[in-house]
Amino acid sequence: MEKVIIVRYAEIHLKGKNRGYFERVFCVNLEKALKGIRHELRRTSGRYLIAAFDDLDAEEILSRISRVFGVHSYSIGYRVPSDLDSVFAAARIVCPQAGTFKVETHRADKRYPMTSIEISAAIGGKLLDANPALKVDVHAPQHTVYLDIREEGTALVFGAFEEGAGGMPVGTSSKGLLLISGGIDSPVAGYMMAKRGMDVEYLHFHSYPYTNEQAKDKVVELARILSRYAGGESLATVKVTHIQEEIHKKCAPELNVTLLRRFMFRIAERVAKRKGAKCLITGESLGQVASQTMEGIASSNAVVTLPVFRPLIGFDKEEIIVRAKKIGTFDTSVLPYEDCCTVFLPEFPAIKPKLSFIEEEEKKLDVEALVEEALTTLERISIH
Ligand code: ATP
Ligand code: MG
User: Fold this and answer.
1) Rounded to two decimals, what is the model's pTM?
2) Which is the CATH superfamily of the domain at 175-382?
3) Which ligand is in closest contact with the Cα of 292?
4) From atom 20 of ligand 1, which residue's Cα is the shortest distance away?
5) 2-163 fold
6) Do domains 2-163 and 175-382 have the same CATH topology?
7) N or C, which terminus of the chain has less Cβ within 10 Å?
8) What is the number of other CB atoms lying within 10 angstroms of the CB of residue 12?
């Protein structure tokens, strides 16, 4: 009897001719998630088995698997020869000691001498005989014992299906650059894109010395938590202090945020190109703050050619918070360190800035020189 974790994949089977590619990426991602833990990863028809692990590592493996996109469901159980005695021995371990139960059998091996129903009845009967505290309830049982009779003369026996993260394997939908602040929204935005298979890189703008080291550490920590789902090795940071000072000194105060965002997008596009990222990702949500109006969004889109994805555009703050808590970024996001956007924040930011007015104000700045200068402050911080 061998203890195994069974991993079933999600949408991958839909991908027809690309299936081999999707499976390879998925397999690499599973291996990456299990790095540092002794195990064996085996592919069997339509699923993966993790075996040869230390019992003490089982919880950690399950927790890591729960964060891998492309996993539809997973179970911990046993792999045994498919004869009834061996199956029964595993079923006894999997089945709790009391309460109502049923046995559900899936028979992939159609040459097996019994039907699914016969197997369920036989194992169910043996379990009842062995333990009088159990009772069968086929409609609403407290426990289900699952038997999966495989073609290779083996059976998988397990007690539950845990829901996986769903989505597609990270890396199958190209690469995107996430503009990550220290807030609640941007990490969730990165998560959403990673869920659709996008490999995420991270870029953060700071305004040192107006913002401090702690603010930066917080973003590193957010990127680190996110990378457990979304991949990525490092966080790029760029200093925008001089840009903010120039805007503050020379331009209409109500455009401070709008103008800064246009600089952020320009810089981000260049960083993205260096990193091979094909799009920008932000945590904007329509109407959430003054800069996230249709006009604000259009004014920042106007300075870049790469597509900009805003997966939270239609989400309420409460919906975003629920997700942030689930992902595990919320507690870090609400730590009270200053973000660069709050430095030089105008009292009345323009809600519907006209593009012609923005462009007029921007002429007071040497945009290209400021972008180039900011790029010289580019730093790469390892997040692992
Ligand atoms: P968040 O919770 O993600 O900080 P927010 O509600 O505070 O979002 P804004 O400050 O208007 O909204 O920022 C909108 C988006 O712009 C963010 O979601 C993020 O993608 C990007 N952004 C803002 N500030 C920064 C920053 N300092 N570095 C990198 N990206 C930023
Ligand atoms: Mg913010």
Assistant:
1) 0.93
2) HUPs (3.40.50.620)
3) 1
4) 282
5) VC0802-like (3.30.2130)
6) no
7) C
8) 22
Ligand nearest to the CA of 345: 1
Q: Is 201 in the pocket of ligand 1 (CB under 6 A)?
A: no
- Ligand 1 neighbourhood includes 205 CB (under 6 angstroms): yes
Give the angle subtended at the CA of 366 by the CAs of 361 and 372, to the nearest 5°.
130
Q: In angstroms, how far is CA 81 from the centroid of its own chain?
A: 36
Q: Whose CA is nearest to atom 22 of ligand 1?
A: 181
The CA 96 to ligand 2 mean position distance, Å, reads 49
> How many angstroms separate the CA atoms of 337 and 345, rounded?
15
- Does 183 sit in the ligand 1 pocket, CB within 6 Å? yes
Rounded to whole angstroms, how far apart are CA atoms 85 and 369? Answer: 77
- CA angle at 253 for the pair 298 and 289, rounded to the nearest 5°: 45
Q: Whose CA is closest to atom 12 on ligand 1?
A: 284
Only one residue has tokens 């972008």, namely 371
Would you mind telling me the total number of residues written for the chain in this entry?
A: 384
For the chain, 384 residues long, give each residue's pLDDT as a single digit of tens: 999 999 999 766 666 778 888 889 999 999 999 999 999 999 987 789 999 999 999 999 999 999 999 999 999 999 999 999 999 999 999 999 999 999 999 999 899 999 999 999 999 999 999 999 999 999 999 999 999 999 889 999 999 999 999 999 999 999 999 999 999 999 999 999 999 999 999 999 999 998 888 999 999 999 999 999 999 989 999 999 999 999 999 999 999 999 999 999 999 999 999 999 999 999 999 988 878 999 999 999 999 999 999 999 999 999 999 999 999 999 999 998 777 667 777 878 888 889 999 999 999 999 999 999 999 999 999 998
Q: What is the dihedral of CA 55, 56, 59, 63, to 10 degrees?
A: -110
Question: 374 CB less than 6 Å from ligand 1?
Answer: no
Report whether residue 334 contacts ligand 1, using a CB cutoff of 6 Å.
no
- Return the domain boundaries, the chain: 2-163, 175-382
Distance CA 135, CA 99 (A): 6
Q: What is the DSSP letter of 337?
A: P
Q: Which pair of tokens denotes residue 197? A: 């298979």
